[in-house]
Amino acid sequence: MQNRSLRLLFVSFVLCFYSVTTTALAQEKCALRIRGYVVDENGSPLRDVLVQASDGMAVSTDHQGRFTVSSLCVGMHTVRCSFVGYQTNTSVVSLERDTILHIQLLNDAIHLQDVEIIGTQSETLSVGKQKLSLTELQERKGMTLAESLTALSGVTTIGMGNSIVKPVINGLHSNRILIMNNGIRQEGQQWGVEHAPEIDPFVADRLEVVKGAQGVRYGADALGGVVIATPNDIDLTVPWQGRFDLLGQSNGKGGMAHLRLEGNTSWLPNLGWRVQASGKKLGNYTSAGYYLGNTGVQELNYSAMLQYRDSLNSIEAFYSHFGTEIGIFLGAHIGTVEDIQARIAHGRPFETYDFSYTIAAPRQQVAHDLIKASWNHRYSPKSSLTMVYGFQRNHRKEYDVRRVESDDLPMADMVLTTQSLDAIFKQGNSSFGVQSLVQVNNNTPGTGTTPIIPNFDSYTLGAFAIHQFHVRRLHAELGARYDFKYLDVAGYRYKKGAANADGSIEQYLLTDTRKFHNASGTFGVLYHFSPQWSLKSNIGLAWRAPSANELYSDGVHHGSATYEVGDQSLRSEKGLKWINSLLWHTDRMQMSLDMHAQLVYDYIYAQPNPDSVRQTIRGTFPLFSYRQDDALFYGADLKWMYGIWPNIDYEGNVSILRAENRTRDRYLPYIPSDRLQHAVRWRYSRDQKEQDYIKFAHRFVAQQTRYDAGADYVAPPPAYHLFDVYISKQFAWRNDRQLVVLLSAENILNKEYKDYMDRFRYFTHQIGRNFHVKISYTF
């Protein structure tokens, strides 16, 4: 009896053990994962692709095109990837262990151009919208924001020398271009040509330009277009990851370094974090044959971000600091009328400068802090509410060589504080929004000079509505907006006339209030003629109130070494822009042709006065006076990419622009001339890696012949050709480690040239030959 009981106990133990082990094995067999990467035909990662696997939950790819499907059993599985604008990809996988897939989606040509509208729920039918490719972003790392965007057709720059440049879109710049920095309107002292955007390009993973007048969605000042700088969302699927960039260049004998780290939090998986920092140090740069004194630059930038995402909510907190110190070319600050005339006639510095990292007066020192808090709540798949609050503090100091006080005392010390609050509700194909903006500008006392612009308070309120229609091959958009702006000004000005007996000049208190209001509208259509041909057409009405410097400036602008005189009677600019885009896409050819025309009523511009210069105690400066006329801008931008052979591409763009002063029947000053950029790229690796290539590029800028003789201090400079070479190599291992090394030489022939859009062209040439080494490591 006892033996029988022992046998029963043994059998029960064996059965229990078998049951537990088989259950465990069964669970182990259903604990497999399929991970993968989804890219387009060019090898670029695709975000928000829907990935479905049999026996597994549907997931979406992240910003790097990655996905993970978990809790899969051993056996055969069907993996289906679908995304608007692309053909659905279906793969069958025999799953025995964790598997990694590399999936490429092919373009669905008939709706390729709809991705912008439907696939990403864009608020606007963005005619003329272009973005930098991953290759272009890699090649232009370390450049300023404006220089990076010149890879796009229709985008040029205006500025002073090599370090201070601003983007120009179809001939318009400064306050006519809105820059969206991570969803916040970038607000600094951007009215000056020599006030470059205070944005660290390393923060942005995507750089886009919208050429159409976008006053409805983005508000007043989007007269010429919009620049959109956007970081990727934080990847919440990995504990942590990062990227390190190291860049060096020969011209200026310096470089940049950048580090980014991000990941999720173990105690709250839906919460992600990101921190990053970058620094730049450059000394005096050289033209083709000489150093330019005091042209160094140094930067220190950093940012932090928190993101929380669940099925219904997305919350983001973001902070960034941009700090820079820029030297102003010494030869632009001149003592006498005879000296300035002699330098302009000579066309290059009389002095000889050596290389130095020292940044002395004249110089700029700028700090820009930005805080963003946003919340998006999805009520349903087709309706959501977004609230965005922004706070910005821009502190600009400009230093000049002083005769009495120390050069460490700034000539201009301005603090601009901006607060914004936006609320946008989306319901189906409609969007409704309310946007508000409050600005306070204060000139810090104690500089010993009269500020070029007075103190002011500005209040702006706007409301808009946009609706989209989609009927088979036809897509249309209709939008309207109304804005109101109130400006309150107070500041001291010197009285005109002779000085007192002791040499002093009396001052008076300038006070003024201005009210501006206007309506904006947009109507656009997109039609697919065939799988290869599509047409976009958009007409937009936008406006811009005159800025404080255009109204009230009367003094030396030390950053640009010019004397500026404003006009308090200026009215708002109103622009009507019509842009048509023809898009052609085949297996070997991609082409877009943008044809645009814009009539700007009461266009405000600074006219150089070659018959007069302004002498002050600080020196002698070219005189620029603001005036207002009706203007017409029109032209065309062509961009293409042609696959000559499977591993050789020919790409490029052409921009043609014309601008007329309709009131005076004359030409407008500072309008970009015609230009061509094109390149041949050979992808030399057998596996066709996107970053394994050799590229030869050529840039041609024509002479600006459409100008009024005698209306400037010197005629526009001659046309020029520049040649560049790029060699790139990509190293990858373990799927999550990647190293890209890029060697390049710009202006490899060391061409001596001047650009019409450079304010320093009166005194010096542009930058000479420049070798680059750029290393990017992703881990």
Mean pLDDT over all positions: 85
CATH superfamily of the largest domain: TonB-dependent receptor, beta-barrel domain
Shape: globular
Structural class computed from helices and strand pairing: mainly beta
Based on CA atoms alone, the radius of gyration comes out at 29 Å
**CATH architecture identity of the largest domain:** Beta Barrel
The beta-strand count equals: 40
Q: State the domain count.
A: 2
Major sheet:
22 strands, antiparallel, barrel
Helix share, percent: under 10%
Signal peptide: 1-26
Main location: membrane
Family: Belongs to the TonB-dependent receptor family.
Keywords: Cell outer membrane, Membrane, Receptor, Signal, TonB box, Transmembrane, Transmembrane beta strand, Transport
What features would you describe in this structure?
This protein has 779 residues and is mainly beta. The protein is built from seven helices and 40 strands.
